[in-house]
Specification:
This protein has helices spanning 21-31, 43-53, 70-80, 95-103, 117-164, 171-185, 190-201, 212-215, 223-229, 232-240, 249-255, 276-291, 301-311, 319-330; strands spanning 2-3, 10-11, 13-18, 36-41, 58-62, 85-90, 109-112. It is α/β, with parallel strands linked by helices and 348 residues long.
């Protein structure tokens, strides 16, 4: 039996502990080919093997052993390797001690001796299944903690951008809500929607490096000043690029001002090389930006924004994304005030 969850299969390790060498050899032969088996003569040696060769998925220990008995051994294993599934072998005379150990949580299961080989093999297989369950539960708990941390980080970065530029208040949330609605209409689900959500909430993170006087200055900016602002997608990419390489949030942030005809920035990409998430954000960003108050102009309104999308669909903006956006506003009554209740929910 091997662990197939990693990039390479790793053998599952089982430690057998007994004070009788013949028993150890017999159990090792029984499990040969199923798992990687280690043996230890007595509790003290078992702790040494655990320390040098662990971790182990399962430890099977006899109860009656000179020096450290099986209950003391497995109670120590519980403290130092809580994810190792512990099985105790006991005689009928020791049944109450085994029951007490189980009630205290020291052992997952106890088996009475003599234990037929086929029963022992089946119970070890069951214990390995329980070990897999414990590992999955641990990984799920870690994932949930990471998602809570991610939510806090995204909230913090998003708030930081808005704090530096009051004209962006609510902009990233509105863009994200519209982008997610478009994405759902396009059939995006699961990880693709979560990627789009995080990219939307952070798409202007690069503006933390833009001087505040440029962000809030009324009137027309000089070309060199405009160039500084237009670097914010690239700066956003540099901030986010160390995220998981298989999670294209940084790429989407970098490309959300690219245009299908290659006239966008910062890379001037042809539409064939623009990520789907960036195509969606590009449309959502333009719609909200044109409807928002800016230091150099008043809001242009949703009618003008939709005219811009319709006039340039297929040229600046992805044909399908633009079409869905227009339909949402013109036929389904979508409003930029309709923020998704799950905008900050990273638990799915």
């Amino acid at each position: 039996m091997t662990d197939q969850k990693g990039a390479e299969a790793t053998p599952v390790r089982v430690l057998i502990v007994d004070d009788d060498q013949n028993t150890l050899e017999s159990v090792s032969r029984l499990l040969r080919g199923d798992v990687e088996t280690f043996t230890a003569v007595g509790g003290a040696e078992a702790l040494e093997v655990l320390d040098s060769c662990g971790p182990f998925a399962v430890i099977v220990s006899d109860l009656k052993m000179p020096g450290m008995d099986g209950i003391e051994l497995l109670s120590r294993v519980q403290r130092c390797a809580p994810d190792t599934v512990r099985v105790l072998l006991t005689g009928h005379a020791d049944m109450q001690a085994a029951i007490d150990a189980a009630n205290l949580g020291y052992v997952y299961r106890f088996l009475t001796k003599p234990c037929p080989p086929e029963v022992l093999r089946l119970e070890i297989k069951n214990a390995l299944g329980h070990a897999d369950l414990l590992r999955d539960q641990r990984e799920l708990a870690v994932l949930k903690r990471c998602k809570v941390l991610l939510e806090g980080v995204v909230r913090g970065f998003s708030s930081l951008v808005e704090a530096r530029d009051p004209y962006l208040a609510g902009h990233q949330q509105r863009v994200t809500a519209l982008a997610l609605t478009i994405g759902q209409e396009m059939g995006l689900t699961g990880d693709d929607l979560e990627t789009l959500r995080v990219a939307g909430l952070l798409h202007d993170i690069g503006k933390v490096y833009v001087p505040t006087d440029l962000l809030s200055r009324p009137g027309i900016l000089r070309q060199e000043e405009l160039s500084v602002i237009q670097m914010h997608p690239e700066v956003g990419y540099e901030i986010l690029k160390h995220l998981d390489q298989d999670w294209p949030v940084a790429v989407i942030v970098r490309q959300h001002h690219e245009r299908m005809d290659g006239s966008g920035y910062p890379q001037g990409l042809d539409g064939r090389f623009i990520a789907q998430g960036a195509r969606i954000l590009a449309v959502a960003d333009v719609v909200d930006a044109m409807c928002s108050q800016r230091p150099y102009r008043s809001s242009l309104g949703i009618t003008k924004a939709l005219e811009e999308i319709e006039r340039n669909r297929g040229r600046l903006y992805d044909e399908r994304v633009a079409g869905i956006c227009l339909e949402l506003f013109r036929k389904r009554g979508y409003s930029l005030t309709e923020l998704s209740q799950n905008l900050w929910d990273f638990s799915n």
